[in-house]
Amino acid sequence: MALRRRVLLQRLLIGAAVLTAAMNLNATQAAFATLRSTLGMTQFSSVQLQHVPQRAGHGLVQRGPCACGLAAGIVCCALTRGCRVPWPAVRTRLCAVGDSVAAGTAMKLFSPAKINLFLRIIRRREDGYHDLASLFHTVAFGDELQLEVLPEGAEKDELKCNLPGVPVDESNLVIRALNLFREKSGVKRHFGIKLEKSIPAQAGMGGGSSNAATAFFGANALCGNPASPQELLEWGDDPVIGSDATFFLSEGTAYCTGRGEIVTPVDALKIRPDLGIYLVKPAYGISTPACFKAMDLKSLSSVDPEDLLKTFQDKGTSHDSWVNDLERPAFQVNPNLGELKTFLASKELGFEAVLMSGSGSTIYCVGDPQGGAANFEAATKERFDIEGIWKTQLMRRPSPSEWYSQV
Ligand code: C5P
Question: Are residues 289 and 374 in the same domain?
Fold first, then answer.
């Protein structure tokens, strides 16, 4: 740790210890909020933290101010003596008391959809998956997830969803993500989850994976941030929560390889802030396994994905390099989807680019249609059986410590 940062931390902790001893009240919480922020650990934003009962147990508050003062003192001593403090271990200690978080502590989080700005399939692997290389980006369209800590002794998570037909048992990625969080953190608490779905299923927009990542982030934040943003990315790298979930733990623009779980963060693209993205979802979905099964590995594009990435980094979306290797197999699974893309890409509509997202069935259109949005929507719905058309924008997390918020 840089010397200046260490000295600053030392002073803050001394202040925290003194405050704790002197005031014997919620200074403990303030002290540990300071500690978390100094260590670069995930922050609550006032918008996201919906309800924190008095004396809620973020950090050590329920173990009493003495323990906090003592802990702060020990860390101070270690710093003063120039010892290396094992930060992950410190965080894990803090997390162990995440179990003492007050029941009823809750958060409401936005759970965004994603699109793939390009998607190349590289090879079939021995485990049945395919290595891919894709530029993922989150958009301002998505679901809403409320997470509440259940009383101690609750033995399972309770998931409620506004959409009938969405499984609310262990097969739901949200429950799997919470199981994974408990396994990785050692926290034993369970959660009540209310999921308001807007992202359709089988749409190629990563709805389930986004919900899983959002629950993962929320559980970590509610339990006092046992994992840093970087550690959360590492904890989330588990096929049990789907190939795309790790991406949502990035800042919202990422070059993803492997199954999709190797996430390389990419800086914000150079795009104009009002760039329109129209998500067009036909009434039918495309099953991801069916799409991969229909794929002919010999007829994929040959463009180097690193070149594609450079093009997007240099030119934003103003170019002609739009590739999704899964389009052809998806159009084979449902030829109507190919017809929809041909219509959306027609000169008369005048979009800058039109591409299928992921394994479909959503087709997104970049820019704005000639003749206006209302005419475009009416013309599309007249010709095709459409579940929804949503105008949205590319969006990112404000910082690695804050979650996505809807614009
Ligand atoms: O990981 P996820 O559950 O999203 O994948 C669903 C299915 O899609 C997998 O069982 C596999 O058949 C296929 N898939 C693949 N290669 C990937 C991602 C998914 O073959 N990189």
Answer: yes
The answer to the question of residue 349 being in a domain is yes
27-38 and 3-23 helices, crossing angle to 10°: 170
Q: pLDDT-derived band of residue 28, with 50, 70 and 90 as boundaries? A: very low
Q: Give the chain's domain count.
A: 3
The vertex-238 CA angle with 234 and 240, nearest 5°, equals 150
Q: Say if 399 falls within a structural domain.
A: no
Residue whose CA is at the smallest distance from ligand 1 atom 3? 242
Q: Which residues pair with 281 in a beta bridge?
A: 388
Q: Is residue 407 part of a domain?
A: no
- 244 catalytic residue (yes or no): yes
List helix spans (H) across 81-201: 87-96, 173-185
Q: Domain containing 50: what range?
A: 3-100
Q: Are residues 226 and 134 in the same domain?
A: yes
Q: Which residues pair with 191 in a beta bridge?
A: 149
Tell me which residues have their CB closer than 6 angstroms to ligand 1: 129-130, 132, 242-243, 259-260, 288-289, 292
Strand runs (DSSP E) across 294-378, as ranges?
353-356, 363-366
From 124, 244, 263, 292, the mutation candidate for ligand 1 (largest count of ligand atoms within 8 A of CB) is 292
Between CA 105 and CA 216 the distance in angstroms is 16
Give the residue from 37, 67, 100 where a domain finishes.
100
In this predicted model, what pLDDT tens digit does every residue of 67-117 receive, in sequence order? Answer: 555 565 555 545 544 444 444 444 444 444 478 888 999 999 999 999 999
Catalytic residue among 143, 157, 244, 325: 244
Bigger pLDDT: 55 vs 5: 5
SS3 230: helix
**Residues 6 or more apart from 164 whose CB is under 8 A from it?**
none
- Residue 199's pLDDT is 97
Residue 397 lies in a domain: no
Nearest protein Cα to ligand 1, atom 15: 129
Structure tokens at 5: 């940062």
Residue 407 has pLDDT above 50, yes or no: yes
Active-site residue 325, yes or no?
Answer: no
- pLDDT over 80 at 402, yes or no: yes
Residues 43 and 111 in one domain: no
